[in-house]
Write a structure and sequence with these properties.
two-stranded antiparallel ribbon
Length: about 150
C-alpha cells in the first residue's frame, strides 16, 4: 500500500511536466495548417510568435513579431490597429497550448480575422518555409519609437 501511495504522489508531481496537446479549434478563430499559413504569409498577414524569447532566438517565421505570451502578448490589446488586421498566431507545435490561449485572448480583444496556426513553427520548418533566426528587428512593429 505504501508503494502505491508513493507512486500516486510521484505521478501527481510529474503531471505539469507532461506535454498537453493544443486544442484543435478555438472559438472565434480559424484553424490553419502549414499550407494555409504560407498562403496568409504570402498575402501579408501578421504572424505573431508567442513562444519564450529563447525559442524565438532559435528561429521563427520570417517577418513575424515576437510577443511572448507570458510577458508581452497582452500589449496587443492596446495596439490601435484596425481589429480586421489578419493575425496568424503560433507557438512551436501541436503540443504547445500557448497559441490557443493567445488566439482566445486576441478574439476577446475584438480582433476579427484571427488564424490559429496549430502546427506552429515546427510544421513551418518541416515544410522548409521562410524563417529567420535570432533577429529582434521584427518586434519593432509594436514598439514605441525612441524619443
Amino acid at each position: 500500500m505504501h508503494r502505491l501511495v508513493v507512486f500516486f504522489f510521484g505521478w501527481l508531481l510529474c503531471q505539469p511536466l507532461v506535454a498537453q496537446e493544443a486544442p484543435l479549434q478555438v472559438a472565434g478563430a480559424t484553424t490553419v495548417n502549414v499550407m494555409q499559413a504560407k498562403h496568409l504569409h504570402d498575402h501579408g498577414a501578421l504572424f505573431i510568435d508567442v513562444r519564450p524569447a529563447r525559442e524565438w532566438g532559435w528561429g521563427h517565421v520570417e517577418g513575424a513579431i515576437h510577443l511572448d505570451l507570458r510577458w508581452h502578448f497582452a500589449s496587443l490589446a492596446q495596439v490601435p490597429w484596425p481589429r480586421e488586421v489578419p493575425l496568424v498566431i503560433y507557438c512551436d507545435s501541436e503540443v504547445c497550448a500557448q497559441s490557443a490561449v493567445a488566439v482566445e485572448q486576441a478574439v476577446g480583444w475584438g480582433f476579427t480575422r484571427v488564424f490559429y496556426f496549430r502546427g506552429g513553427y515546427f510544421a513551418w520548418q518541416l515544410f522548409d518555409m521562410p524563417s529567420s533566426k535570432g533577429s529582434t528587428n521584427e518586434r519593432l512593429a509594436l514598439s514605441s519609437p525612441d524619443p
